[in-house]
Amino acid sequence: GENVEQHPSTLSVQEGDSAVIKCTYSDSASNYFPWYKQELGKRPQLIIDIRSNVGEKKDQRIAVTLNKTAKHFSLHITETQPEDSAVYFCAASKAAGNKLTFGGGTRVLVKP
Amino acid sequence: GAVVSQHPSWVICKSGTSVKIECRSLDFQATTMFWYRQFPKQSLMLMATSNEGSKATYEQGVEKDKFLINHASLTLSTLTVTSAHPEDSSFYICSATKQGIGTEAFFGQGTRLTVV
After folding, report:
1. Does B97 lie at the interface with A, CB-CB under 8 angstroms?
2. B105 closest CB neighbour out of A89, A100, A103
3. Mean pLDDT in residue range A48-70
4. DSSP state of B86
5. Hey, which residues does B33 pair with through a beta bridge?
6. How far lies B91's CA from each of A42, B8, B73, B113, in Å?
């Protein structure tokens, strides 16, 4: 089955700096890669996703890149703000709406 | 947007009792729902795929007789933790997708189960 590795497990950045989280996956049949933000005790919230026919996608301060050949994808957050502090999960699935395999999570702390 | 609601949000039960958790899609029909478990400071792990009108598909290592899943309608799936033990204490989250393909998953707010 699919295996998703996520690094780093914790990330501390100064407000205004950029944060980068990287994930690798094992199943070449995976085609959908969402990123979720989860605050303590809350549901995961989709912040951005990318499909395998696209190499990069951007939404304001958030961008995701995908390298299908190398089976890795990354989340980039620019101009970080304290409210960006949370746990971020990458995930992979064969298609949107299919079951998700999650990475281990990255705890991001943005220091004011 | 699509709304998925879980009930209860939290529950405390005694060891040996059973607990039922409901997952409802409020404004759309979902032929498939997923149940995940999340231990403290860990990731979400898929437990099972719930299919409307048929048996659930369980992931390897998940006991189907302990975690009973019923998906009797297009808007409701239930997860029953039978004979709960302290090690079953966890955050259980469901997700649902709209009928059709290519749509994102919508998550319930989660249920915090504590077995004492």
Report:
1. yes
2. A100
3. 94
4. G
5. B50, B96
6. 10, 11, 24, 6
Cis peptide before A8 (omega within 30 of 0): yes
- How far apart CA B1 and CA B26 sit, in angstroms, is 10
Give the whole-angstrom CA distance, residue A64 versus residue B8. Answer: 35
Give CA–CA dist A62/B86, Å, rounded.
40
Q: For tokens 């958790």, what's the residue? A: B21
- B101 by Cβ neighbours in 10 Å (0-12 / 13-18 / 19+) ranks as exposed
- Residue located via tokens 């405390």: B12
Q: Does B43 contact A at CB distance below 8 Å?
A: yes
**Mean pLDDT, to the nearest integer, of A53-70?**
95
Residue B101 has pLDDT above 60, yes or no: no
Q: To the nearest whole angstrom, how far is the Cα of B9 from the nearest Cα of chain A?
A: 10
CA dist., res. B115 & res. B47, Å (int):
19
pLDDT digits (tens, 9 = 90+) for B4-62: 999 999 999 999 999 999 999 998 888 889 999 999 999 999 999 998 888 999 999 99
Is the Cβ pair A102, B91 closer than 8 Å? no
Residue to test with chain B: of A27, A43, A101, most B Cβ within 10 A: A43
Query: Is any Cβ of chain A less than 8 angstroms from the Cβ of B73?
Result: no
